[in-house]
Amino acid sequence: MQTSPLLEALMEALRCLPGVGPKSAQRMVFHLLQRDRGGGMRLAQSLTRAMSEIGQCADCRTFTEQDICTICANPRRAQSRQICVVESPADIHAIEQTGQYAGRYFVLMGHLSPLDGIGPEDIGLGRLQERLAVENIAEVILATNPTVEGEATANYIAEMCAHHNVLASRIAHGVPMGGELEMVDGTTLSHSLAGRQPIKF
Amino acid sequence: MQTSPLLEALMEALRCLPGVGPKSAQRMVFHLLQRDRGGGMRLAQSLTRAMSEIGQCADCRTFTEQDICTICANPRRAQSRQICVVESPADIHAIEQTGQYAGRYFVLMGHLSPLDGIGPEDIGLGRLQERLAVENIAEVILATNPTVEGEATANYIAEMCAHHNVLASRIAHGVPMGGELEMVDGTTLSHSLAGRQPIKF
Ligand SMILES: [Zn+2]
Ligand SMILES: [Zn+2]
């Protein structure tokens, strides 16, 4: 837009958002200018506060503007003596939605990836080891992604847990509920066969 | 994200952008927090300036932070004595890209739409009439979208031009009917500009 350097700059700045290309950036700018300047201003304020105030929980490493997040600070959450290890804060959200888990979390913010130079310290395992040593933990539930890196990371942490005499468990992998068996990929199906459970009455 | 009200607020604020749903808002927030806080801060600053400083050109109504945009302020642009009428600032961008046009523009920021209560004044036709009366204009090129509303708007303006003894022309319908001007490729747009026809009554 040769008629407005500010407009051009905003189109460029929007490209920092994943999935936003030149065309959608243009559509966003015109939408905001023509129909929602208030929304654009609120977005700017929200961005500024979030980028400058959100840090990581000192206990579980999830994103929070507090020193200790509300989940870690909740004494009822500590009672279960469980820690669920996930790769990202979004995974906490997904697990919370199930309503099936009442323990605490530990967020790796990634996974081990030696080829990319991402080692144990980069995913906070020093802090996890501290917690295993100091807190009275009964079980570490490994809920990393079912990928090669996620599996390797889960195995690495399981060994750490064994070293501290803490039970480590891995979430079950298998056929997704509500899906059709023939649509499931072979690897998943292998896992679900290997991980079969006896039916008890 | 029950662990961070600021994060939740940002996810909500991002929804003001067209095409951004809950899932992509979440992906954007995590991407910025984990990998590009600098980009997020720059976006916030750019948004603030754009939303508060960008207005409309007093002559052509396109988005600009100046009183008169650079195209209107360019005396060489006035020499052609042509005004190209488009529906949106994005259309100016598309036409400029063809390199086929050296005149000035008039941006309607929409089109006539009686059913939605959008009349001539809402699309700035009062200002266009002023320009037809005061400036020595040789030709008005009607480059509204090839839609029912765009055609109706073009015809309305053509009548206005006839009243002021100014030649009105319509860009050739090499532009596919029912599409939006800003989506058209440059070659098609060049052809449609070159093949414009005077509107006769
Ligand atoms: Zn926490
Ligand atoms: Zn202008």
From TrEMBL, chains A, B:
Q: Name one GO biological process term.
A: DNA repair
Query: Record's Pfam families?
Result: RecR_C, RecR_HhH, RecR_ZnF, Toprim_4
Q: Which gene encodes it?
A: recR
PROSITE patterns, per database record: TOPRIM
Family under the similarity heading: Belongs to the RecR family.
The answer, when asked if rRNA-binding is one of the entry's keywords, is no
Residue intervals of the Toprim domain: 81-176
Q: Where are the zinc fingers (C4-type)?
A: 57-72
Which species expresses this protein natively? Sodalis ligni
Q: Which InterPro entries match?
A: DNA_Rcmb_RecR, Rcmb_RecR, Rcmb_RecR_Znf, TOPRIM_dom, TOPRIM_RecR
> Care to name a GO molecular-function term for this sequence?
zinc ion binding
Reported function: May play a role in DNA repair. It seems to be involved in an RecBC-independent recombinational process of DNA repair. It may act with RecF and RecO.
Q: Which NCBIfam families match?
A: recR
- Under which name does UniProt file this protein? Recombination protein RecR
Provide the alphabetized UniProt keywords: DNA damage, DNA recombination, DNA repair, Metal-binding, Zinc, Zinc-finger
Q: Which HAMAP family match?
A: RecR
